[in-house]
Design a protein that fits this description.
The complex is a heterodimer of chains A (260) and B (245).
Chain A (H helix, E strand, L loop, with lengths): L1 E10 L2 E11 L4 E5 L6 H9 L6 E6 L2 E2 L5 H8 L2 E4 L11 H12 L4 H14 L15 H13 L5 E5 L7 H17 L3 E6 L2 H7 L2 E6 L2 E6 L1 H6 L3 H7 L3 H19 L1
Parallel strand pairs in A: 3-8, 3-9, 6-7, 7-8
Antiparallel strand pairs in A: 1-2, 1-4, 4-5, 9-10
Helix pairs in contact in A: 3-4, 3-5, 4-5, 5-6, 6-7
Chain B lengths: L2 H14 L7 H41 L8 H41 L2 H8 L3 H38 L5 H9 L4 H27 L5 H30 L1
Classes of the chains: A alpha/beta (260), B mainly alpha (245).
Bound molecules: adenosine-5'-diphosphate and magnesium ion.
Chain lengths: 260, 245
């Protein structure tokens, strides 16, 4: 569980986070949604300490992250995995070495054990025959998978994903979303996902935080979002006529489901 | 940002470098990798420059020394001293500032912009220690060695050019090399080499590590870092000469 209270962050005059509070739950996919530039990345980077918030508190399972000194944070970070928007793979290393890197750095296992683990996670993210390739030689969707594999190789308790399906085709997006969801449930991870993808919201939205102008505008799950009468939220999520129709269909289905 | 903000941030980066490595073996590997990258990668250019600068200084010194009263072996002395005192350390380091400096700045800049540095931080790695320290250490080991190589090759180039152009025989040149040799000159050149090596690695590292923005900024800050490094080298060259000679 990650709890944050009244987070504030500005860059110069520009207020990006204007007092956001929320609880990210364990074993669930927690979504941060909002338009581009609404501060999703900044919020996520504040949560992991890549940005220092101006004000507010961040608490990881009862431990206050804000008060930690650098060395304590380094220890906690070994339990954090992060998938970056551009995957952030090390381009001087092969796929295999990218994933092995955290193991090399933080474990004393021998090479056979480490390679076994590497192949395990590669299989888990459905990536084969790419072991010896360099990041420049693989597609965007594959990069994301490698990014996920690298993020989970040390069995993290917390997983952060910044727009895991931006730049991917709808089918690959779904696969990645599903994968993240499965991992979250399987290993009881506290997963935080930034997205503005409508499909993700409906498919894996266990706990959604909708941000507007650096503030919490709405919160709920993918069921509740259908029935929400928050106008801004509706305009953001169900942006096209097609999606509005889909929403109404779902509402009708849900009502009939209740009756029957 | 003004000069003092940059200086403060630069010093803080250097201070932040000193922390316990998470895994000594990987740090060692990174250090060796950097030695190969910085040292072996620049050997070719250093050799070529050194040979030619020695050759040119022999020819030009001979051209300037027209008096029959001065013995030919003096040419060798002059070539030896200019190569050891100035050409090998300063000229070579200026070139290395371009070659190595731009490589360091763009490598780190690319890692920053593509969030690879963030990815390392998130794993719980001190990136100043892991990325910057091995580069500075490798520069401190390899650049002075290259400066020594430049001295040898520079003098050899001068010796070769002297005989090839019929200015002085290799025997006369060798005799001149032994005359009034001051070992301190070599020490002084090495002091310069260590000082410059530190700047050549740390200044571009600073510019690369703190790049903000997109890939355009990487090129810009890499160029800026080379310019700043060159100016700092020339300035410290003057200060060292004034203080120690
Ligand atoms: N390092 C930074 N310096 C200054 N402004 C920034 C920085 N990072 C983000 N911002 C600003 O913060 C706002 C939110 O950005 P971001 O969190 O990246 O949005 P998104 O919701 O699309 O992820 C943007 O207006 C952006 O310009
Ligand atoms: Mg973003």
């Amino acid at each position: 569980m990650i709890e944050f209270k009244d987070l504030r962050k500005s860059f110069g005059d520009k207020v990006v986070l204007d007092g956001v509070s929320h609880v990210m739950e364990t074993g669930k996919t927690n979504l941060i949604i909002g338009t581009s530039g609404s501060g999703k990345t900044v919020l996520q980077k504040c949560l992991v300490g890549l940005f220092e918030p101006d004000e507010g508190e961040i608490i990881y399972d009862g431990v206050n992250f804000t008060d930690m000194v650098e060395d304590e944070r380094k220890l906690l970070r070994q339990q954090i995995g992060m998938l970056f928007q551009g995957s952030a793979l090390f381009d001087s290393m092969t796929v295999e070495d990218n994933i092995k890197f955290p193991l090399d750095m933080f474990t004393n296992d021998n090479n056979t054990t480490k390679m076994k683990r590497v192949n395990e996670v590669l299989e888990r993210v459905n990536l084969k025959d790419a072991n010896k390739k360099f990041p420049a030689e693989i597609s965007g969707g594959m990069k994301k998978r490698v990014g996920i594999a690298r993020a989970i190789v040390l069995n993290p308790k917390y997983l952060f994903c910044d727009e895991p399906n931006s730049g991917l085709d709808p089918k690959t997006s779904m696969v990645i979303d599903k994968l993240i969801k499965e991992l979250t449930v399987e290993f009881n991870i506290t997963t935080v996902i930034n997205t503005h993808d409508m499909n993700s919201v409906m498919e894996i939205g266990d706990n959604i935080l909708y941000m507007v102008d650096g503030k919490k505008e709405w919160t709920g799950n993918s069921q509740e979002i259908i029935f929400s009468d928050n106008q801004q939220l509706n305009e953001f999520i169900f942006a096209s006529e097609f999606l509005q129709d889909a929403k109404h269909m779902r509402m009708i289905e849900a009502k009939e489901g209740k009756k029957g | 940002m003004n000069f003092f903000t940059h200086l403060g941030k630069y010093l803080l980066m250097l201070k932040g470098m000193f922390s316990k490595p998470e895994n000594a073996k990987l740090y060692w590997k990174e250090f060796m990798h950097q030695c190969a990258d910085i040292g072996v990668g620049s050997l070719g250019i250093v050799s070529i420059i050194s040979l030619f600068m020695g050759a040119v200084s022999t020819v030009q010194t001979a051209y300037q020394l027209v008096s029959p009263l001065i013995s030919k072996s003096t040419i060798a002395q002059i070539v030896r001293d200019t190569v050891i005192l100035e050409f090998a350390p300063t000229l070579v380091c200026i070139v290395l500032a371009g070659v190595i400096g731009s490589k360091i700045a763009s490598e780190l800049g690319n890692m920053r912009v593509s969030e690879q540095i963030d990815a390392l931080e998130i794993m719980g790695i001190n990136t100043k220690t892991y990325l910057v320290m091995p580069k500075i250490a490798a520069a401190l080991v390899t650049i002075p060695l290259m400066v020594i190589l430049a001295m040898v090759l520079g003098i050899y180039g001068g010796r070769f050019a002297g005989s090839a152009a019929g200015i002085l025989s290799t025997d006369t040149f060798d005799k001149g090399l032994m005359e009034s040799f001051m070992p301190f000159n070599v020490t002084f050149a090495l002091i310069k080499a260590y000082t410059f090596a530190f700047f050549i690695s740390s200044i571009p590292a600073y510019f690369g590590y703190y790049v903000t923005g997109g890939s355009l900024e990487i090129g810009r800050s890499s160029t800026k870092s080379v310019v700043v490094t060159c100016i700092v080298i020339l300035l410290s060259d003057y200060i060292l000469a004034a203080a120690l000679l």
